[in-house]
């Protein structure tokens, strides 16, 4: 009876009232497979294309900045999108950040905290040593400006501000992880404020539900400030950030994010868990409860089509998820929430490459700001920052690392033994254990083949089959490794890989064909090549292969 009711309910939901249970099962399976096939990562070709269009918009000469904060935000988006710090546009943003820091000694940090926070984060991400003095100036300004109750707001003070507090706290976390001294008292007071401002339903509002002078007791009702998606992402991110910064996550169980046995973690005593602050004033249980309530709120209310501050919210949500992954040691390369956000941004990107919130304010949101926030979401900017500071922290300590630091890999804040991810057998074991959940960051671009001829032949045969794998990094590793083997048996697989949707894979395949054939001056891959151009290139290499191996099967 229950089974019939369930099937009838699903049939009604899908609009297929006359499907038999068997046909319904096939339909559901097809839908699930179609959904899985659309899963993307920041490195997926379609995501990279969206990022490129957004970047092209930001680089247009007629894009107008309104102050150092917006300038630094654009620079941060470009840097996270892969631009080198030496690029003129990134250099312009860094110069604006330095100017704001140095002017703060006489003019203060400005009326809001956003600009200084983004400037500080940009300088920390690019080179904390080079910009050490400027970063310290901003940190000093924030510490002086912090309210006695732990939050930050406008100057002069108007109200407790959840939005500005999240950026100041993020700035202090990034600075702490880069070796700057952050007073534990400042973070303790902020953590207490974050916990106290959470509404009973698990969300946060933009303004605190009280006034220090007239009504110091929080009143959580509809008459006061309402909970919003953007502010709940801000509050949740701060709760997880504080949980990590106080070292509460160091003994956490990996849970669902446990690494596979094919990947070895550096001995736990040598494992870098980031800079932590010792505190006996912040309750671990209180933060855990705050995180639990926030997670439940988003489980019931997640959406990305918020009509106002849309892309600001999306970057805040990505930051919340990045700190959640750090604390819980989760390991999901293609999370459902990211794919949902990518789908939304794909539908709403404008023809000029920009994004804009449906309801935009006149002063604090515009196309350059919204586009920068969208790029930061698409690139998983916060996760990149977390992995970067974790890796550099281990490099500073020098503990538990291989001699060749270029081979180091990060997975969710953990340092992996590179020997387990840089040989063919290690990759095959990862594929067997993790299947669809393989994190592409645990694979090297090029793998090491076994010197024994018989085993090497078996490995090559495995790699030829992997050029069809759905994970782009698996295909890239397979093609790059095949490309160095100079084995004519690899040629059909490399010709097939020319048609790969990921341009990195197709270019690696062409390099392999040129290396194997010793024909270095062959036709290249045109920029923005069409399907017909790629087919013609494949036919060129098929003709060559038939000329040297008539019985090769092509």
Give an overview in words.
- This protein is mainly α and about 550 residues long.
- The chain has 3 domains: about 35 residues, no CATH class; about 350 residues, Glycosyltransferase, CATH 1.50.10; about 100 residues.
- About 55% of the residues lie in helices and about 0% in strands.
- The chain contains 21 helices and 2 strands.
- Strands 1-2 form a two-stranded antiparallel sheet.
- It is elongated, with a radius of gyration of 26 Å.
- About 40% of the residues are buried.
- The N terminus is likely disordered.
SSE layout and pairing:
Elements: H1 2-14, H2 21-37, H3 45-58, H4 68-80, H5 88-107, H6 114-126, H7 132-145, H8 162-177, H9 184-196, H10 229-245, H11 284-301, H12 310-328, H13 336-348, H14 367-378, H15 381-397, E1 409-411, E2 414-416, H16 424-434, H17 453-466, H18 472-483, H19 491-497, H20 503-517, H21 531-548
Antiparallel strand pairs: 1-2
Helix pairs in contact: 3-14, 4-5, 4-6, 4-14, 5-6, 5-7, 6-7, 6-8, 8-10, 9-10, 10-11, 10-12, 12-14, 12-15, 17-18, 18-20, 19-20, 19-21
Which terms would index this structure?
single chain, 554 residues, mainly alpha, Glycosyltransferase, 3 domains, two-stranded antiparallel ribbon, 2 strands, disordered N terminus
Compose a concise summary of this entry.
This protein is mostly helical and 554 residues long. The protein has 21 helices and two strands. Helix 9 (184-196) packs antiparallel against helix 10 (229-245) and helix 19 (491-497) runs antiparallel to helix 21 (531-548).
